[in-house]
Design brief:
- It is a single chain.
- The protein has 28 helices and 26 strands.
- It is an alpha+beta fold.
- About 50% of the residues are buried.
- Strands 14, 15, 16, 17, 18, 19, 20, 21, 22, 23, 24, 25 and 26 form a 13-stranded mixed beta sheet that branches.
- About 40% of the residues lie in helices and about 20% in strands.
Length: about 800
């Protein structure tokens, strides 16, 4: 498989968000001349609002509104001066009130994102280390990454996995002064908690451990003076813990607050904290509203408000218990998450609820894994019990409808979230289809396979038989693959869909940047299987090309795809797969909306290069069709060197030649961290040498013909396509003799002489291949992961 183009993370997010936007569930605009919090205007409809993060409803409190209006009248819309010079006259009172709330020194910041960017680089020293919970808020992760420039190590654990955390603490304890664990107090999607009590115990066990808690979703609705979940669990704030709260969301105003009991650290952060020093300060209206809210938090009224919200949340929880709705995490927070599994089901469900009169938030990648799409419901004091009950009734009615319309079911949702399994109902629209799932190409009709899938690449029937024999019974785990063949027939026994899959061990950083792979490979010197996972892939790491045949004009095409998805899910579950990969598709592929709706995200791959040889009589006639510029390059860089080289086609190799072939291939593999894969088994090259469909185009110097400087490993596909599958090169000779270009030219020359109709030149180096007459087509793949942990961990390393 060729080198992958490193996909810009933002490009992927943009695709997912664009899809959701087109479905009318994201990037909406609220409508109306006023807003009460209980209802919201969207698309000319007035909906009950179950998407707010103002859980106590303080943003609509008349005291906060009056304070904000008076501040604007007295001080203007802003106080345009850095806070390092002079603060708005209202700031002192706000700081005094919030300090009383937290009973410890505090720092007010413009918002939590800028706050993290100011605090983390100040609090974390060069001798320290950072460990992130993989679900900690993006703003914390982003601020932590800044410290990579100072060589502060950053690692990550799976969500709330304290065993994993302790292992990483042990590994860092003799290397780093402080070890910072960064987490949310309340997680914004599922509403689950950080295990504060267990973290306190770890801090006692490991004095180096310091906690950085982003508790913006835990503020106000819980805790003494509404100071949040983390402090309600901690009691007094220890010096080794920093807690971030918010003055927006539930607090009802704007801004954020850091609580820090370590006087030395507090002074350093407050004196110079990057954005805290240079960013604009809060507007007078925000400062005044926050002060009014702080006064409420310091009064007994805050506990009345908390209890009122708690009663509504418990009422909602009680109603949910009487349904089969897949609540992902049951807890006492005002945040609830109902899983839908596939994005397309989520879109359908949200739109149905809006038509019914209820607004909820869509939870989608990257906030959650794509396959863990769902709706986030927030309960606030704005919500009355009758509309809470109405929402539950609407969800109970519409979720089965949404599942049915998107050809899925509740069992698949439970399976996607690893909840207690429920029976998977059969889609009756697919009854007329028959699925053949086999574990060997020997069980598949040879003519059928070659007709529908086997005309290109190294995966015709004989090629797959060769791969099954090569990737089995090897001593290393990564060299043993399982093969699965899927043929879906209609009632008349006509194939509607044909493909094959492999299960193998992949390096998780295969698609990552070179820098990330270099860092990970250092760890693999001690642990060879660090960051590796079982992957179920369409095709294999050995093959390139169109691995999926589907009859695009068949009336049951979509149902066949649905059956394929269910087969993949069954294999994924039974084989405990961490990632599913579908490849290689044209960028113009019309299936993109379908795959995205099924929980896959699209990534770019290198362009595919092919040459059509029909009607090409000789290499000279092929060259004559090139541009004058490309012919000039051919004469200068290839033909001028050809006379110095010995070109030989080997149908088989002796032991010495095989050793050279393997060494040359390994040079290419080691120099290609951009596609970081395991090596192939040693017997591969011997098997190639013994197989009638494989041959080697070997290049050596005429003055040393026994020593190869380059080799192309080529496969004969049904006497139709010529497939230069892999290459080996001596990098010391690469520039002088233009070995890569020479091998491409000799491959084309060989294919024409052997009268092949087609050359599959594979992916990467499209610029070089285009110069020799290749047609280039952009390609993509679709991936689906069980969670975002690995993606985010590697993102931290890049």
């Amino acid at each position: 498989m060729a080198k992958i183009k490193h996909n810009n993370f933002l490009d992927t997010v943009n695709e997912v968000f664009t899809d959701a936007k087109q479905e009318g569930v994201l990037h909406l605009y609220a409508e109306g001349n006023q807003f009460s919090g209980r209802k919201i205007g969207i698309k000319d409809r007035t909906l009950f609002h179950f998407g707010t993060t103002g859980y106590l409803g303080l943003e609509q409190d008349s005291r906060l509104k009056t304070a904000a209006i008076e501040a604007i009248q007295n001080y203007g819309t802003q106080f345009p001066l850095s806070k390092s010079y002079i603060s708005n006259p209202l700031y002192r009172q706000l700081e005094d009130k919030v300090t009383q709330m937290f009973e410890t020194p505090i720092i007010i910041t413009k918002n939590s994102t800028l706050g993290h960017l100011g605090v983390i680089p100040s609090a974390v020293k060069d001798q320290d280390a950072i460990i992130l919970d993989h679900q900690v808020h993006w703003s914390v992760q982003s601020a932590a990454k800044v410290l990579k420039n100072r060589s502060v190590p950053i690692d990550m654990i799976r969500h709330n996995n304290l065993n994993m955390l302790e292992d990483k603490i042990k590994s860092l304890s003799d290397k780093r002064k402080k070890i910072w664990y960064m987490a949310d107090g309340i997680y914004s999607m599922y509403g689950d908690y950080a295990p504060i009590q267990d973290l306190k115990a770890l801090c006692l066990k490991y004095p180096q451990l310091h906690l950085y808690i982003d508790d913006v979703h835990g503020m106000s609705w819980i805790g003494k003076n509404g100071t949040g979940y983390a402090l309600s669990e901690l009691g007094e704030l220890p010096e080794n813990v920093l807690v971030f709260g918010t003055l927006s969301k539930t607090f009802g105003a704007s801004g954020a607050v850091l609580a820090c009991s370590n006087k030395k650290m507090y002074h350093e952060i407050k004196t110079f904290g990057g954005p805290l020093t240079f960013s604009a300060q809060l507007e007078p209206a925000s400062v005044a509203a926050a002060t009014a809210s702080a006064e409420i938090h310091l009064s007994p009224e805050i506990y009345e408000l908390q209890n009122d919200l708690k009663e509504r949340a418990q009422y909602f929880n009680g109603l949910l218990e009487q349904t089969d709705l897949p609540l992902i995490d049951k807890n006492n927070s005002p945040v609830f998450y109902i899983g839908t599994g596939m994005p397309k089901t989520g879109y359908n469900f949200v739109n149905r609820l809006m038509k019914e009169g209820y607004y909820v938030n869509l939870g989608i990648f990257p906030a959650v894994p794509v396959k863990n799409t769902g709706v986030r419901i927030t309960i606030s004091r704005h919500n009355e019990k009758q509309e809470i009950k109405g929402l539950v009734e609407a969800m109970t009615y519409h979720l089965p409808k949404a599942l049915e319309e998107t050809h899925t079911n509740l069992g698949r949702v439970y399976q996607a979230f690893k909840l207690k399994a429920k029976s998977i109902e059969k889609d009756k629209t697919e009854d007329s289809l028959k699925v053949q799932l086999e574990d060997s190409i020997l069980k598949i009709d040879k003519k059928l396979w070659n007709k529908y899938v086997g005309k290109h690449g190294a995966f015709d029937w004989e090629g797959l038989k060769f791969l099954e024999e090569t990737f089995s019974d090897n001593p290393l785990e990564e060299h043993n693959w399982n093969f699965y063949y899927v043929v879906i027939y209609d009632e008349d026994n006509n194939p509607v869909l044909v493909t094959f899959l492999t299960l193998g061990l992949w390096k998780d950083d295969m698609l990552a940047s070179v820098n990330a792979s270099k860092s990970i490979e250092q760890e693999r010197q001690k642990n060879p299987y660090y960051l590796t996972s079982k992957v179920l892939s369409m095709g294999s790491l050995f093959t390139e090309g169109e691995h999926l045949y589907i009859d695009k004009i068949h009336p049951l095409k979509k149902q066949a795809l649905n059956r394929l998805m269910k087969s993949l899910e069954g294999l994924e579950h039974s084989l405990e797969v961490k990632m599913v990969v579908l490849r290689d598709f044209s960028e113009r592929e019309s299936l993109n909306p379908y795959f995205q709706g099924q929980g896959f995200i699209r990534i770019k791959m290198p362009a595919s290069c092919t040459i059509d040889l029909i009607g090409t009589a000789s290499i000279e006639s092929h060259v004559s069709g090139l541009s004058s510029r490309n012919r000039r390059h051919l004469r200068k860089e290839i033909l001028a060197k050809e006379s110095l080289l010995n070109i030989e086609v080997l149908n088989s190799c002796n032991e010495e030649q095989l050793q050279q072939v393997q060494e040359l291939y390994n040079q290419v593999h080691k120099n290609n961290l951009g596609l970081n894969t395991f090596t192939f088994p040693e017997k591969l090259f011997k098997n190639m040498s013994n197989h009638p469909n494989w041959e080697f185009i070997a290049v050596s110097l005429k003055d040393n013909p026994e020593k190869m400087i380059g080799v192309m490993l080529c496969y004969n596909n049904c006497n139709y396509s010529y497939v230069p599958a892999f290459i080996g090169m001596d990098y010391e000779c690469l520039k002088e003799f233009h070995t890569y270009r020479q091998l491409l030219y000799q491959t084309i020359k060989r294919a024409i002489n052997m009268k092949y109709r087609h050359i599959d030149l594979g992916m990467t180096a499209s610029f070089e291949k285009r110069k020799l007459g290749a047609v280039v087509e952009e390609k993509c793949a679709y991936i689906q992961t069980s969670d975002n942990y690995t993606l985010e961990l590697i993102g931290v390393m890049e």
